[in-house]
Amino acid sequence: MAVSRGHFSSRLGFILAAAGSAVGLGNIWKFPFEVGSGGGAAFVVMYLGFCFLLCFPVMTAEIAIGRRTQRNAVGAFKALNKPRWAFIGFLGLASGLLILSFYNVVAGWAFGYVIEMIMGNFDIGSQFGDFIKDWMKIGLYGIVFMGATAFIVSQGVQKGIEKAAKFLMPTLIILMILLSTYAMTLEGAMRGIEFYLIPDFSKINGQVVYSALGQAFFSLSLGMGALITYGSYLSKEQNIVQSAALITLMDVGIAFLAGLMLFPLVFSQGLEPTGGPGLIFVTLPGVFRDLGPNIGIIIGTLFFTLLSFAALTSTVSLLEVPVAYVVDEHKVPRKRAVWLTATLIFLIGIPSLLSNGASSILTNFIDVIGLAREGATDNSFMTLVAWIANDTFLPLGGMLISIFAAYIWKKENLSAELSIGNEGYAGSFLERFINFSISYLAPVVLSVIFLLTLLSKFFGIDLI
Q1: CA atoms within 13 A on the CB side of 49
Q2: How far apart are CA 418 and CA 63, in angstroms?
Q3: Residue 112 in contact with residue 265, Cβ under 8 Å?
């Protein structure tokens, strides 16, 4: 007996769910850090350009493959009678499993900080090292977070993923607008806005371009089968090109809002905007304390609730990719598939959980295996997993999907699928642009990102 797959009930539900897949900790945590390191507004300009020139076309291809086949990230290639190319789907599955295994640990940090803010513990920033070392507490937070993710996914496409997205995404945007508005009222906030919005193009160099390319691609959840999977739940009446444009705009908009929220907060306290990931977990609690105890508790709690919601929208899509594979290919009932997969991923994530101070070997794992670089401050097992899954597998997957769509499935079949529900697409500028991008631009750029990352992370050769 075939297992029911489910479908999104509306275009809005699909857009919110797919945007939720793209929107995550990277938008709120990594994007502002990259902006700070990349010199501010010049980085933002490049990031926006790359999102639409490179990522938008790859996104349309992924969604089209999913909708055409109505199958998961592995089964889609088999359904197109290209079984040898199913390895791309397996690569995406591996990426999702590994990313979720460590992402859940970081989500546990964010959830734990909500509790610390409610308790008024603004010193948690200076206690961050001890906080993440407490593997039992973080593990418990991770179990709660993985449980919430699994519960949503277990309810199915409409009652679970779509319903959660319709609540989480608007709430996320409202919280960001509220916090951004408040941040702009603080003394010195305008210096942060100037840094963020007035470009200094002299800051642009090879490293900044590389970072902007990488951030654009990684922030949109491309290359790991999530959008193939979500596309498989999309009806034939929907306009894929328009939906992909709206998803890209929403992802970019939320990342942009994160900067409007964070830089005024940081500059109002006279802090440097290049504090890296530690800016969120180490520096910001002190910023909230300086706002006054009552306001600080409210703003701090809202901020880390926002961070937790952003993480949840991503963990849902990360879990759905392997679940859809198990349901489709192995005919396992959805709820059983969800809880078995979630349990497996949590177990896979235990070394990452222990690699933040609880185990000296895992904390220094990159050094132990001889890959540590001079000046590196984080040599943990969790960082190695991020290198493999996030930094290496994703651009490789995106490059392969582009090549498959353009040369194996063929551009004319992609155009035919994108024309369904989109009168006027055939022969349009958009068709020519998308075909050019997936045929030439995306394969070349993503292969360069993949090779530069591989050489830098695993061989210590920095070419930029």
Answers
A1: 9
A2: 9
A3: no
Is residue 410 within 8 Å of 80, Cβ to Cβ? Answer: no
Please list the rounded mean pLDDT of every run of 10 residues in the chain (464 residues).
72 93 81 78 87 93 97 96 97 95 95 96 93 97 97 95 94 90 91 87 84 82 91 94 94 88 85 68 86 90 92 94 96 96 98 97 95 84 94 94 97 96 92 97 94 91 84
Dihedrals φ, ψ of 277, to 5°?
A: -55, -30
**pLDDT at residue 274, as a whole number:** 64
- Tell me, what's the pLDDT at 3? 53
Task: Name the pTM for this structure.
Answer: 0.93
> What would the 3-class secondary structure string for the chain be?
CCCCCCCCCCHHHHHHHHHHHHCCHHHHHHHHHHHHHCCCHHHHHHHHHHHHHHHHHHHHHHHHHHHHHCCCCCHHHHHCCCHHHHHHHHHHHHHHHHHHHHHHHHHHHHHHHHHHHHCCCHHHHCCHHHHHHCHHHHHHHHHHHHHHHHHHHHCCHHHHHHHHHHHHHHHHHHHHHHHHHHHCCCCCHHHHHHHHHCCCHHHCCHHHHHHHHHHHHHHCCCCCCHHHHHHCCCCCCCCHHHHHHHHHHHHHHHHHHHHHHHHHHHHHCCCCCCCCCHHHHHHHHHHHHHCCHHHHHHHHHHHHHHHHHHHHHHHHHHHHHHHHHHHHHHCCCHHHHHHHHHHHHHHHCHHHHHCCCCCHHHHCHHHHCCCCCCCCCCCCHHHHHHHHHHHHHHHHHHHHHHHHHHHHCCHHHHHHHHHCCCCCCCCCHHHHHHHHHHHHHHHHHHHHHHHHHHHHHHHCCCCC
- Sort 369 into a burial class: Cβ within 10 Å, 0-12 / 13-18 / 19+: exposed
User: Among 156, 17, 89, which Cα is nearest to 325's?
Assistant: 89
- Which pLDDT does position 1 carry in this prediction? 42
Amino acid at 375: G
Distance, CA of 308 to CA of 222 (rounded, Å):
21
Provide the pLDDT for residue 275: 58
Percent of the chain with pLDDT over 70: 98
What's the rounded Cα separation, in Å, for the pair 106 and 241?
A: 33
Enumerate residues 6+ apart whose C-beta is below 8 A from 292.
none
**Domains recognised in the chain with CATH numbers:** 11-459 (1.10.4160)
Which two tokens mark 158?
């409409």
Q: In 10 A of CB 410, how many CB atoms?
A: 12
